[in-house]
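Please produce the structure of this protein holding NAP.
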Amino acid sequence: MRQRLALTAAASAITVALLFLPPSPTMPLPPASFAGKRALVFGGTSGIGRGIALKLGEHGASVTVIGRDAARGEEVVRALRAFNPGGAHAFAPCDAFLLREVATTAAAAAAPPLDVLVLSQGMATLQGFTPTVEGLDEKLALHYWGRVAATRALLPALRRAPSPVVLSVLSGGVHSPFAGWRDNFELSQGYSIPNAANAAGFYNDLAAEAQAKEAGNEKVLFLHAAPGFVNTRCGPPPPPFPSAPRNRPAHRNNT
Ligand SMILES: NC(=O)c1ccc[n+]([C@@H]2O[C@H](COP(=O)([O-])OP(=O)(O)OC[C@H]3O[C@@H](n4cnc5c(N)ncnc54)[C@H](OP(=O)(O)O)[C@@H]3O)[C@@H](O)[C@H]2O)c1
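Below is the modeled complex.
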């Protein structure tokens, strides 16, 4: 019992310390060239997806930013044009709660070869099972079903690229397996925040592995990343006291 308390206290102290640390300066990336490459970023209107979209643009890619908020999407497109005026950047509206919208958006982008597909659409709420009009839970639809739907629709375009990448930004390596997958795959019973998080993370792992092994996908790299704590609209709040001024370009803000 004592040991458990000590472990819990240590874990809480580390979490609080991480939350209060000022963000480290952006890590310099090794020279990478995405010149002439095409990228689609679901969740590119905010946070981590926005940061990835801008980084891809900075390295020469043509980027389509996908989300619901047109004002934020167009702002990202303007920033992309500043980096790479020759690129074909665009905003594509999509409500990724709905698989039919994901399929339509993906189909509209599926003709030319696709080099990078980023799946960073996400939400952090305390809501219980909340069905979309298609009957799926909103959180699972966003974090799992819609990601698979987008990937499936875009696989033909990905296969036509020389070294395609599919990056799902969620919780690779930091969730538990969801024990109820056999009888309760859609989480229609026993819904809880940990179950929803574990199910989405677990299913993303399995989907990445299964799709990586699928015939025809030999060239496609499937990644499932866990970003850790990032101060975004859906991430943890900033510390309550001002941190030291940082010299970083505006596009590296997380919101
Ligand atoms: N931040 C963290 O600390 C943290 C930690 C672990 C994992 N993650 C994961 O990282 C991913 C990105 O999170 P973030 O921190 O960057 O969050 P964020 O700043 O809130 O961005 C979420 C993105 O998802 C999009 N989105 C949300 N609901 C949508 C919907 N119904 N249809 C289409 N797009 C939708 C939003 O676009 P619109 O609002 O324009 O629709 C936005 O672009 C998420 O999967 C999250 O679970 C984040």
